[in-house]
Amino acid sequence: AQSVTQPDIHITVSEGASLELRCNYSYGATPYLFWYVQSPGQGLQLLLKYFSGDTLVQGIKGFEAEFKRSQSSFNLRKPSVHWSDAAEYFCAVVILSGAGSYQLTFGKGTKLSVIP
Amino acid sequence: EAGVAQSPRYKIIEKRQSVAFWCNPISGHATLYWYQQILGQGPKLLIQFQNNGVVDDSQLPKDRFSAERLKGVDSTLKIQPAKLEDSAVYLCASSYGQLNTEAFFGQGTRLTVV
């Protein structure tokens, strides 16, 4: 079945430390991949996206992600975390649903806590 | 550019009551989505519209949930009757197309069923 997996439910890092959030997908065709961030009480904001081309994509707020087809992964990284990065992060992939439409499907999310 | 507008932001109802949520997408966006996000989980797609037609409602509990998008612009999601397990945040999103375009999300409606 087509799916998106985020193995880490909760990650805690110190401010200034580097960050990597993992995302794996299961999808037969070339995927369209996204990372969204959700702050408490807010909707989802797009951090970055991958459609094709360069496998290292840059996003907003200093985030980047690398698409690795061989590993079916699209991990999110940031070299130095700020306290304001504390939020929940969702990986998403556009899949072709059984109904024949293209559907944006989300992982279960990784909650990031930042220690001052 | 105005974002996706949703109302109300919060709603508390008793079980078996009915409730409706409203969404106004970004102007020009043909695709509109309703997602249900239960606490601690990722958003789950309930229904997807392309203009005023439904393209996917396979995960919509049709015995109690209904949605419409009249004139291909704003949309309403209704629950009747509500159950305790419907407590969640209901997110509306819109995009220009279905495939290689970004979806923009509203702030959501937090529903509590007591």
How large is the radius of gyration of chain B? 13 Å
Q: Give me the count of strands of chain B.
A: 11
- Radius of gyration of chain A, taken over Cα atoms and rounded to an integer in Å: 14 Å
Largest interface: A-B, 26 and 26 residues
Helix content of chain B: under 10%
Uncertain runs of chain A with pLDDT below 50, 5 residues or more? none
What is this structure's SSE topology?
The complex is a heterodimer of chains A (116) and B (114).
Chain A (H helix, E strand, L loop, with lengths): L2 E3 L4 E5 L4 E3 L2 E3 L5 E7 L5 E7 L5 E3 L5 E5 L4 E6 L8 E10 L5 E5 L3 E6 L1
Parallel strand pairs in A: 2-12
Antiparallel strand pairs in A: 1-4, 3-9, 5-6, 5-10, 7-8, 8-9, 10-11, 10-12
Chain B lengths: L4 E3 L2 E4 L5 E6 L6 E7 L6 E7 L2 E4 L8 E4 L6 E5 L8 E8 L8 E2 L3 E5 L1
Parallel strand pairs in B: 2-11
Antiparallel strand pairs in B: 1-3, 3-8, 4-5, 4-9, 5-6, 7-8, 9-10, 9-11
Short note summarizing the structure:
The complex is a heterodimer of chains A (116) and B (114). With 116 residues, chain A is an all-beta fold.
Description:
The complex is a heterodimer of chains A (116) and B (114). Helices cover 0% and strands 54% of the residues of chain A. By secondary structure, chain A is an all-beta fold. In chain A, strand 7 (56-58) and strand 8 form a beta hairpin. Chain A is globular and about 45 Å long. Chain B is built from no helices and eleven strands. In chain B, strands 2, 4, 5, 6, 9, 10 and 11 form a seven-stranded mixed sheet that branches. Chain B has a four-stranded antiparallel sheet with strand order 1-3-8-7, with no helix packed on it. The mean pLDDT of chain B is 93. Classes of the chains: A mainly beta (116), B mainly beta (114). The interface between A and B is medium-sized, with 26 and 26 residues.
